[in-house]
Structure of Guided entry of tail-anchored proteins factor 4:
Amino acid sequence: MEMYVRVEEGKKWRRKDYHKPVSCRPLIPTCDSRSGYMSQGKHAEARELMYSGALLFFSHNQQNSAADLSMLVLESLEKSDAKVADDLLENLAKLFSLMDPNSPERVAFVSRALKWSSGGSGKLGHPKLHQLLAITLWKEQNYSESRYHFLHSTDGEGCANMLVEYSSSRGYRSEVDMFVAQAVLQFLCLKNKTSASVVFTTYTQKHPSIEKGPPFVQPLLNFIWFLLLAVDGGKLTVFTVLCEQYQPSLKRDPMYNEYLDRIGQLFFGVPPKQTSSYGGLLGNLLNSLMGTGEDDDTEEGQEDSSPIELD
């Protein structure tokens, strides 16, 4: 295993080395090779070899070579008939976690990994992969990106724990309620009411600056609590009165009422507005969260995975 020997000896293994020694070609197969693993249909064996090689390069801080092999792992998945499975998602997440957070290769890798994990459904990636990515980004204290991926997962508890840390370390005490309010409203806009409820309950129980409730000292938290109850009941009159009574709290963020317009459509039968009350950037943010032309009758949490812009 020349590659392994050279790496263990501390020698650099450059991209051009992949094609130099003939003996190394089967070690690092290319998809157009007529004699390598790919042409023999042995994607799994080749993929395992490339994955192990990538881990070896990462362990020796050879980021470029490791990134190249990581992309070949993805290429193997894309060109094979491999089914999306937890072990494959965990491998992809492991490679992501070892990449330089600031490298362009990491951006390209995660984009392709999420696309593959969607299984051609047009969604924005498998919830499990989103969860694993969110955990890695949380460990890196990249809270904004972590929140994005948690929103596209089904891990409300993990999201809440991350938000507690995010709020405690980076937020103002006066905005402790806004961290969870945004997450709950965005989960509901994605029709994931289970995660919305879990993130609210966990966050309010664990945040050191929130007194035990309900009811809560913060009016916005009481609104979210009532909203979750109203969503379960589905009564439009309750939803309407609730939004009217808590307008002072809802005016703290101009996006709240936009989210609530969508929630009204999804859970209370409110017809869509003919024109958005916001244009430009704010309108684009809302459209990216909610998506356009989506069918609302699909499974909870999976029916609308349009991108969510996070500030």
